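The protein record filed here:
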Amino acid sequence: MKSRIFAEVKVLHDVSHRFEPHGETWMAILGESHCALHTYPEHDYLSLDFYSCNPERDLTAFSERLVEGMDLERIKTGVLDRG
């Protein structure tokens, strides 16, 4: 797969899997690290995790583009310093 830019983030490779009867997982290897999205429709829950090697990087636009078009009632965000 050819790498591409999505919301100013370089996506090197990605893969997804749809579960039956519901739910989906998507993972991406990014130029700066990786990202994982997991949906749990039976619990009205979505988890989106980023790991970045660049502490100065703001991934807000990337996360907003990923959930664009989803009917989300509440969004909770947080940053954990792993250093």
User: Anything to note?
Assistant: Residues 60-67 form the longest helix (8 residues). The helical segments are 60-67. The mean pLDDT is 84. Residues 4-67 form a domain with the S-adenosylmethionine decarboxylase fold (CATH 3.60.90.10).
